[in-house]
Write a structure and sequence with these properties.
Oligomer: single chain
Largest sheet: 5 strands, parallel
Number of strands: 39
Number of helices: 26
Distance between the termini: 53 Å
Structural class: alpha/beta
Strand order of the largest sheet: 3-2-1-7-19
Shape: globular
């Protein structure tokens, strides 16, 4: 399309990566008249796929994007080798000639391999395409060591892939810390701690001098500039990329000094019929490699191709990113490198024990957010990113830990980017909600594309949607799911008051349809909390999720873990011997848990009944590690043994655990009892915690660890034994009745209108007149308790479910395999099994 021509004609797209795919999809969505006939030419033997998730290809993931609709010809396995701008044609490596009225260069980038000696040796790979990964996987078979040159985002992904192939790996980064383009020094250092904790060696601040070959002529070691040698039978270069701008150079289009096809803010080259997008384009003097900016360029060109009157421009790049690297949450947003020379201040938090690093960069008056880095805990990423360049609604330190209410529809600036992957602003989301009468997050995602790439913005989308619906006078539903118009708390009261004992009866009277994976386990929990039969009895069994379905915790390789209850962590030598004999005879991995129990890993489903038959014979019962129920009551040895103890904490912990064992709840419950103020049992990080005093016990409520730790609140002091138990009884029963699905006690108390004071009025002062009812409910639970596993062993019908294959009940699952590490079994990864 020339400068004075009408939109439409023949469009040729050179390259078929993510940017090209987005361009074609945007054109098809907006060009109902099909004014453009599109030909896409890609050099890979397959259509476009998601390069962001490249590593998951080794795990069997399907990376392919959906196929384009009609009117799009996709040519694979051919590379555009020449552009004749005068004739407006392109020629491919297969001799194909295609004419164009508009040409979009979307040739992407190529890996940069530093000119080090030995880079051409066998065993040296780039890490860019599916073919690269297939070749890497094949070569890695039978080899043990590997190294990745480059500690950026893609380099760490490559290291993860090599580890998944069973190779011992090392990462070499010439910069002083990992991910230097995204993280600051503190964030890079914390990430290094995580990476090394996963068994990788990390070398930073040192370049590679050479790669050396072994006797077979293939690469064998990496020699660093300081003389250190790293054993490596496989080497992957991930030291950056260079724009693929050779077509532009050959046909006389300007390119940048350091590469990249020069385009203006409309992504047009100096030839009005030629455009460039993605990693091959240089706009505003910069080349962009993140998905968000590349997709934004594609959207701009789509608009320009469809209308000469379009004013769409590329407005710059939001380089914010949130990802999970090898299980570690990492996020960066805004400009985290801003320092005092720009009048910037930093608020930094480091917890090396938990592996958390957080840093906010703010203006000198601490009112404007400039950027930040989060490692180990990125829960606040969505809210913080949305406020970059804008005023903070709360003090920086409170924003860092989520102490303020997360940004929602009402207080989020309209221009704030909600989804950086797809460049969707808060106003864009609001307009879609209003113009299309959207009432659910899936509809918002479909309409705006927000949340359809990395997904990190979905919680923020929900808050914007709720705020918009509320502002429009539309009640924001608290329904459990589409099958029930009631919240979990309301359903609890319906079940209790109506004496309903089955899901079928409940949905017939108060719901619609057949139920789903949300409401079925939630109702199962309600029924179990009210003592309506065994969790595997009749219809109840079909409601359970995977863990409850087999009364054991499902592990990554399809086996299960077995956790017998050890009240208060107290166990006899005979008990230890019994557990040890079971672990030995069934070949299980054993681990002391943080809750003072012994976890046995690696049991196949058909082995579970026999394992539990042995354990129950030795006096053990279910530890409910698989259920939303009481897990453990941790304790120190207290006054019985410790010279500092002032009360018998072990005895109290055992009493509490035996009282509340099997108590089903909206979420798991943890507890602890400490015998003195030294707090060895860590009671203040539990759902209910007890600390001994000279005069009795102090009770702490609604604490938890995890991603968002919360200290428990001191609720009552110097309680006698029976007073303590009465308050815990009422607290637990009130929580079970009123909490939402999967809501921990910490977030429940934070959301409780009136908070701790209101809770005190309810369970101490009996403001609602329900204390007697709460007491009676707990008494019924205690009286009715029966061990789930012992009951299961006595019921042939329940035992019938514990098989790997229905048609071969005694045949073990052949896909389950183990290796030996530190004298114990560990699961083989899928790729190790194949090898």
């Amino acid at each position: 399309m020339g400068a004075d021509s009408e939109p439409g004609g023949r469009l040729v797209v050179a390259g078929h990566g993510p940017s090209a795919h987005r361009l074609v999809e945007a054109l098809r969505e907006r060009d109902a008249a099909r004014t453009w006939t599109i030909t896409v030419i890609g050099e890979e033997p397959r259509p476009a796929y998601d390069r962001v998730a490249l590593t998951t290809h080794l795990e069997g993931a399907d990376l392919a994007y959906p196929a384009h609709g009609g009117g799009v010809a996709v040519v694979t396995g051919e590379r555009v080798t020449a552009v004749d701008r005068a004739a407006r044609t392109v020629t491919t490596s297969a001799g194909r000639v295609a004419a164009y009225d508009a040409l979009v260069l979307a040739t992407g980038s190529a890996p940069f391999v530093p000119p080090v000696e030995g880079r051409d040796l066998p065993g040296v790979f780039a890490y860019r395409t599916v073919d690269d990964l297939d070749a890497l996987r094949e070569y890695a078979r039978g080899r043990a060591t590997a190294a990745v040159i480059g500690g950026g985002l893609l380099g760490l992904e490559a290291a993860r892939a090599l580890q998944g192939l069973g190779l011992r790996g090392a990462v070499v980064e010439v910069a002083p810390w990992l991910m230097p383009r995204q993280l600051d020094e503190g964030g890079g250092a914390m990430l290094r701690r995580h990476i090394e904790g996963l068994g990788l060696s990390v070398h930073v601040g040192v370049p590679v001098r050479a790669l050396e070959a072994g006797e077979d002529g293939a690469v064998r070691r990496v020699v660093l500039a300081d003389g250190e040698a790293i054993e490596a039978e496989v080497v992957v270069f991930s030291a950056g990329v260079r724009p693929r701008d050779e077509l532009a150079r050959a046909c006389g289009l300007p390119v940048g000094e350091r590469g990249g096809i020069v385009v203006d803010v409309s992504c047009r080259t100096e030839d009005p019929a030629v455009w460039a997008i993605g990693e091959c384009a240089q706009v505003g003097g910069a080349v962009h490699g993140l998905a968000g900016p590349c997709f934004a360029m594609a959207e701009v060109v789509a608009d320009r191709l469809l209308s000469d009157a379009s004013t769409a421009v590329f407005g710059g790049a939001d380089t914010s990113a949130k990802l999970k690297l090898m299980g570690v949450d990492v996020a960066a947003f805004g400009d985290p490198s801003a320092g005092p020379e720009r009048g910037a201040l930093s608020v930094t938090y480091t917890d090396p024990v938990a592996g958390v690093y957080k840093r906010l960069v703010v203006s000198d008056d601490a009112r404007t957010l400039l950027g930040g880095v989060l490692v180990g805990d990125a829960e606040q990423y969505g809210t913080l990113r949305a406020h970059v360049g804008r005023g903070l609604p709360d003090a920086p330190e409170r924003m860092l830990f989520g102490g303020t209410e997360p940004a929602g529809g009402g207080d989020l600036p309209g221009a704030a980017v909600v989804c950086s992957c797809n460049n969707v602003t808060a106003d864009g989301v609001r307009r879609a909600i209003t113009e299309h009468s959207l009432t659910g997050v899936p509809a918002v995602k479909d309409c705006t594309r927000a949340g359809t790439s990395c997904g990190s913005c979905v919680p923020l989308l929900k808050r914007i949607l709720d705020a918009e619906l509320t502002a429009a006078g539309i009640e924001v539903g608290t329904a459990l799911c589409e099958h029930f118009g009631h919240s979990r708390a309301e359903l609890f009261d319906i079940v209790r008051a109506g004496r309903i004992t089955s899901f079928t009866r409940l949905i017939e009277k108060h719901g619609t349809g057949r139920g789903c994976d949300i409401c079925k386990p939630a109702v199962a929990s309600i029924l179990a909390s009210l003592g309506n039969g065994h969790v595997l009895e009749g219809e109840q069994a079909a409601l359970q999720d995977t863990n409850d379905h087999f009364l054991a915790n499902l592990q990554k390789n399809g086996t299960y873990s077995v956790v017998p209850r050890v009240p208060g962590g107290e166990i006899t030598p005979a008990g230890l011997i019994a557990i040890g004999e079971v672990a030995r005879d069934f070949g299980l991995y054993t681990k002391i848990t943080g809750g003072q129990r012994i976890d046995l890993f690696g049991a196949r489903v058909e082995q579970l009944p026999e394992i539990w038959r042995r354990l129950t014979a030795a006096g053990f019962e279910s530890g409910h590690a698989y259920g939303k129920a009481l897990r453990t009551v941790k304790s120190c040895v207290g006054s019985a043994w410790c010279r500092y103890g002032v009360q018998d904490s072990t005895a109290m912990a055992i009493r509490l655990e035996l009282r509340y064992r099997g108590l089903r709840a909206p979420h798991k419950l943890k507890s602890a009892v400490s015998g003195c103020a030294r707090e060895c049992a860590e009671a203040q990080s539990k759902d209910f915690g007890v600390i001994a005093t000279e005069n009795g016990w102090n009770l702490y409520l609604a604490g938890n660890g995890g991603m968002r730790p919360r200290h428990a609140d001191l609720f009552a002091t110097d309680l006698a034994d029976d007073e303590l138990i009465t308050l815990i009884d009422r607290f637990l029963m009130f929580y079970i009745r009123t909490a939402d699905r999967l809501q921990r006690t910490a977030s429940w108390l934070e959301a409780l209108d009136g908070g701790l004071d209101y809770l005190r009025e309810v369970i101490v002062d009996d403001r609602l007149g329900i204390c007697a009812d709460l007491d009676a409910a707990m008494a019924r639970h205690v009286a009715a308790y029966s061990d789930e596993w012992r009951d299961t062993l006595d019921d042939p019908d329940r035992l019938g479910r514990f098989v790997s294959f229905v048609n071969a009940p005694h045949t073990p699952d052949p896909s389950i395999a183990f290796d030996v590490e530190r004298d114990q079994i560990r699961p083989l990864l899928p790729l190790e099994v194949k090898r």
